[in-house]
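Need the bound structure for gamma-amino-butanoic acid, inputs here:
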Amino acid sequence: MMTKIVNSWNDFDPLKHVIVGRADHSCIPPEEPATSEKVPIDSTMRGMWGPRPLETVEKANIQLDNLVKVLTERGVKVDRPEPLQWNQPVITPDFRTGSMMTCMPPRDTLLTIGSEIIEAAMSFRCRFWEYLAFRPLLSRYFNEDPEFLWSQAPRPRLSDKSYKHNYYDERISLEERLVRTANKDFVTTEEEILFDAADVMRVGKDLFIQHGLTTNRKAMEWFKRKYPDMRIHAVNFPGDPYPIHIDATFVPLRPGLIINNPHRRLPKEQRVIFEKNGWEIVDAAQPAHTEPPPLCYSSVWLSMNCLVLDHKTVIVEASEVHQLEQMDKLGMNVIPVAFRDAYAFGGGLHCATADVYREGTCQDYFPKQDFDDVTRV
Ligand code: ABU
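Answer from helper R.:
Posting the output first, comments after.
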C-alpha cells in the first residue's frame, strides 16, 4: 500500500497535513554575528540570554495547542516536533555559542517543495542543531512514504568568514540600515550557502527568494542548480531595515493575489513578472498593535503572517482586527485564532507551521515570460 505523505507546491492550495512547532525549553540565545541585529539598542532583551521565563513558555504552548485543535477540527492532520533541551552550548570546530533557541517556528527550518522536504542551511549559530527536533517526523515520513525525498542543504560551517566583521555597529541609523537593504549589503558573506526556509515563497514552478539578512545569493544559485526545471527569482524589499523572512512582507493568499507590507513594497522593476501574469499585489492592512509583545524578535507585521488553509480560507491572529477585516473584503473566510503569546518564540501563524501536504500539483502561475525579468537568477 503506497502512502503519499509529503506534497506541497505553494502556500494556498488546500492544507491537509502540517507541522506545528512547540515552545518547550526555548531560550533567548546569546548575541552572535548573525543575530545581534534583531535586538533594538534600547530593548530590555539587550545582553539578555538564557531560558525564557517558564510562564511565557506555558502561555505560548497553550496557544500553539489551540492552533492544533483548530486545525484538527477542520480535518488537517497535525504533527509536532520533539524539542531538544535548547539550553546547551553549540560547539563545532568553527565556533562556540552559549545556547540554542527553539523549535517553535518550523517554517524557518523546513522547506517543502513537492514531495521533498529540505532542511535549510541557516545562518544563526544558535540554530545549528534545530533540525534535530524534526528528525523523528522526517524519519517517519521517509519510512512510510516511498516518494518522500528527504534532503539537507549543504551544512554551513558558520565560521567567522560567513559574516561581515563589525556589520552591526550600534551607531547605524535606521536610514543607513535602509540604504544597506537597498544596496543588498547584508551581514552574511558569500562564503557559503546560507538560507532560512522562510525566505522562500513557493508559487508552483516559481520560487521567489528574499535576499536579506538570513539568505544570500549563493543560496539562490544552489536552488537554481538543484531545480533546473523551476524558475528562481531574487526579490528584495528596500523598505525593510531588518529583512528576515518573506512571510511578514509578501504573502500569497490564492492564485493571482498577494498582500504586500506597505512599508516594504516590492520595487516597481521587480513587480513586472506579477503584472505581466495578471497577479494583483495589494497593500496589507495596518497592524492593530504599535509594539510587538515583550521579548519578541519579530516586528508588528506578524499581523499579516497568516496561515492559508485553501483559496478561500485563512487563519489570522485574533487581535489583528484590521487584517481580519481586509481578508474579509478580499473574499476570504477568516478564522481568528489568538496567537500573540507565541510570537516571542519565533513568529506568527505561518512561522509556527510547516507544510507537509497540500492538495494540488506543480502549476505554472507565471506562463508569460517574454520580457526582461530582473528578478530571475
Ligand atoms: N519571521 C518573520 C518575521 C518578520 C518580521 O519581523 O517582520
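Comments: DSSP finds eight helices and 19 strands in the chain. The two ends are 40 Å apart (CA to CA).
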